[in-house]
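Open question from group meeting: does this chain pack into something compact, or does most of it stay loose? Before anyone orders reagents, we agreed to write out a predicted structure and look at it together. Recording both the input and the output here so the notebook holds the full record.
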Amino acid sequence: MNYSRLLFFLCFWLLYSPQLFSQNNSHKWSVGGAYVVTNMEGLLNQKALKPNNYTGGVKIFLGRYLSPSFNLRLEGSYGNLFYPKVSFYPERTLAVFTQQNFFDAAFLIEYKLNNNYLVKENSIIQPHVFIGFGTNNMNRDMNTYFPFGAGLKFKVTNWLALNLETTYKVNIDNSYSYLQHQAGLIFSFGKKGKSTIVENTNIEKATSDLKDLAIVTSDYDKDGVDDASDECPYLFGTIAMSGCPDSDGDNVGDSRDKCPTEKGLLENGGCPIKTIDSDGDGVEDANDKCPTEKGLMSNGGCPFVPEITTIKEEKKQIDSGKTLSNEMINIGANTELFYLLSTSELNEKNIKTLDALAKYIVKMDIQKITIKGYTSTSGTDKINIDLAVARAQKVSNYLYSQGVNMRKMSVQGWGPYNPKYNNSLPEEAIKNQRVEIILE
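Structure tokens returned:
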């Protein structure tokens, strides 16, 4: 077997085969860590490959994508090394070597060879070189150095890569240079690029532009619909829409959808049916008899205002001739009963008044009795109207028990509407807790 040819094709595949992900314009950040070995004595004695001269440490870094060709990197390492002790003589004679801790940090500019010139940007193997500027702490002195080197990244998954690098760190502060090798992992992360939704007004232009660049294929836009049947062959769409896009998923294609970004109904041109309730009373304007006035759903959207009937001005004061507790009970064409707040029960005085009134109605053969219940404005409309109806109904029931014909009586619940007294004054508002009995 020709192993050289096999090796050539293997290297070619590794360099140019596509990968799922790499640090790029959509995923600009990366972090990583590595195990490093450092050699100082090796350089001084030309023994860079001698295993006993290397000491271990760790490195971390943060990377930032700048362009297809360049990355920016901030890194730092910590470990120990064989450091030559220096005797205090003018000639700085080197003495024995000792192992001590040190740390360094540097900014690096990384030039990537996988920039679509030599190697594809999304290759599995990504070679790079770098140079930078840094500082280190060695033998309790802060020193400046220039690092440069080269490395290879091997993509493992869509977010993980293996990184191998060799760095030579040239000290410029009358200190010592050293060599580092590292092996570690890189984690790339970032946001996915936002997909651009083509407005339906530009679909024809976009289709025309793409058609000029079209490559003859059975399914150019890769949407699962063959070009011969695809109504939008150069725009990715859905099978249900015959290959055209449907951005809002309402089964109305974007080219025919009047609201392409809002899920709507087919019969409404792809737009949602929006209800309008101007006065906010829960009744849509289309069904609201009073669309500009907040009202009750039970009253067709209008506020509850009973039909106002004409009340006779004439009031006949009729003395029943019955004295109760030294108090004369006066009844007439308009008789009022007063109540405590939030009650419909008849008090003693109301009962005595109704007893006298019932006798008068029967005696005079009154043909029409209107009983109107009222309240103040305290509480909601529903509560007040229910209370007013209950008050009027109990008066009607009591008169019936005293011999008044039920067919002659009409019961109305007005609640807080059409008040006789001023509800803005507490002493007046209490008087609106009443029932008015009108005789005709």
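Observations to bring back to the group:
The longest strand covers residues 94-112.
The helical segments are 3-16, 41-44, 203-212, 348-364, 381-401, 426-429.
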